[in-house]
Amino acid sequence: MDEFGSIRHWTNGRQSGELLHGQGVVLGIGDDAAVVEAPPGISGALQWVLAVDTMVESVHFNEATMAEADVGWKALAANVSDIAAMGGEPRHALVSVSAPGAWGPARIRRLYDGLYACADHYGVAIIGGDTTSSPAQLVVAVTVVGTVEAGKAIRRSGAQPGDAVFVTGPVGMAAAGLHYLLAAAALGGGQFVPPADAAAAGTAALVQAHRRPAPSVRAARMLAARGTVTSLNDISDGLSSEAWEIADASGVRLLLRESQLPVSGSMAVYARSKGINPLEWMLGGGEDYVLLGTMAASDAKAAKAALMEAGLPMYLIGEVEAGPAGVDMIAEDRHSGHRAEQEKRIPIQKKGYNHFTD
């Protein structure tokens, strides 16, 4: 099968005409470029929001931790989350795959299975891309185009003293899942861990969080519509790193409260079994793809109630203060069960993943 036959095999008939039409696709995969119509604004003009993310084999994943379809899902989900972090709605995706010989047509087909599953879940039209050979490792680069109401994109730089700090889901689960997968693969001679084995080990939710993260698109759109969110960031590199990004961009200090951080029950059980403080995964793990943000304190409880009514989680985890840019945390006193705020206030360092650390 030649290159163009392979592309047809991987992409033809994957998405419904209804989805493509709904996203304004005039011409999709099969020509030199795609053609889409700009969607009409529901409440005025829209602006385009664009994001690109790359996943590299052995850097972001390996065959012991993720199946081919998981790689495809996650490659798109990372970009969908970036659009959500601007308060936007994802619409179109371009997919570039560079594959070595070990990734034959059947494996790439399974990768596209995951890509299209994620695309259909979030209503994203895959409209084109590129395929090339690679000398050694698989590289998947995805560009997602979304829209947001003109002038309403939510940046990292808008946090104000007095704002509430929130997250749209538990954090640290993906890192805990990766920890389990790497440990299990090491014991199994580098073999892939099937979902059934993860379920038997009580880590299914953690593995799912790592392999198939769920970006908070609906929550982002609901929060953006309220007009009270002042900053937003997605947790791709760890809670501490993303909090620092908001603090730096906004010139404020974020105060997090350990007692209010959402801790997954399965993560707590697994961490306890390994003698690990789950806070390590929560602050420095990354790849949860939930949202961290700030909003007017006067609307925080009402916003949380609205999301909960829609079946979406939201947790209030701290507040914004004036002062030099940084992040602090009020730590729990695990022995007495009490918190002494002046004594237990500790600075939080950037602990997230960084590709270019020395």
From TrEMBL:
Catalytic activity: thiamine phosphate + ATP = thiamine diphosphate + ADP
Keywords of the record: ATP-binding, Kinase, Magnesium, Metal-binding, Nucleotide-binding, Thiamine biosynthesis, Transferase
GO molecular function: ATP binding; magnesium ion binding; thiamine-phosphate kinase activity
Every PurM-like N-terminal domain range: 30-148
Binding residues annotated for Mg(2+) 5, in chain numbering: D237
Composition skew (Basic and acidic residues), residue ranges: 334-346
Binding site for Mg(2+) 2: D53, D82
Binding site for Mg(2+) 3: D32, D82, D234
Any single GO BP term: thiamine diphosphate biosynthetic process
Residues given in the record as substrate binding sites: H60, E287, Y353
Function: Catalyzes the ATP-dependent phosphorylation of thiamine-monophosphate (TMP) to form thiamine-pyrophosphate (TPP), the active form of vitamin B1.
Family: Belongs to the thiamine-monophosphate kinase family.
NCBIfam families, per the entry: thiL
Comment field (misc): Reaction mechanism of ThiL seems to utilize a direct, inline transfer of the gamma-phosphate of ATP to TMP rather than a phosphorylated enzyme intermediate.
PANTHER family membership: THIAMINE-MONOPHOSPHATE KINASE
Protein name: Thiamine-monophosphate kinase
Organism: Paenibacillus nasutitermitis
Species lineage: Bacteria, Bacillati, Bacillota, Bacilli, Bacillales
